[in-house]
Here is the input.
Amino acid sequence: MRILIPTDFSELSKVAIKYAVDMSKDLEIELKLLHVIDTSAPSRARVGSNKLQEAIKASSERAMKELLASIEKDNTHQIDISYEITSGTSIGKYVETTALKNDIDIVCIGTKGASGLKKILFGSNAASIIENSSIPVLTIPEFARYKGIKNMVYSSDFYNLEKELDLIIPFAKLMDAWIQILHIDKADEGFEGDLQQKEKSLIKDFSYQKIKMTELKINSVVLGINKFVADVDADMVIMFTHHTNFLEKVFQKSVTQNTAFQTRIPLFTFQKEV
Here is the structure.
């Protein structure tokens, strides 16, 4: 599995790197680090830009070498890791281009905890990556620690269940994880049919035994997801989205409810078909 991690060498970006490195103890993983030098500075700041860019590039190369050395020092197992340093004005664009060029399976980014959540998680860079990536994005909160992936909560409206499961199953199989499919029943808009029968049918169709379906009667999708995540002790939450508005609602609500979701549970987002 190939994982791309954008890094600005901050402690926050190291959160994603540590999680992926720890995951590589259990799975065969190739890591690629990407650093994008921001060239969107005002014109006055670009005076003598050639020399300035050369100095910034050299500084970035040194920081990357130091980062690679620290990863190697902190880990005893062999890690397949490479890097790329480029320049541009849109990190979202370069993440997507680099991911497609290198046949990346997952883009992995680190996020801040409750205090600065809205600003950092849904700031321009993270939002741009989540919204524009055609490749699944794994978002790692600052206090998340990899301890294996046993339970993946997949929040579904059931509209594209089979298509979406088709994308999730390969990752679940790699991790030998349970896919806990959660449907929130608001105002009696529940699943029309036999849930247990549907569960058996999915297990058979996908040749994967670790599929469990649950319907939760609750008025708020946000509260429902947070409650279920706690109930099953989830290691990861999966959502399909084409915008970050709903994700922001989920995380902001979990802050007020004082749950661990926003600070400890990785979020795995896929592009939803529109």
In short: The longest helix spans residues 49-74.
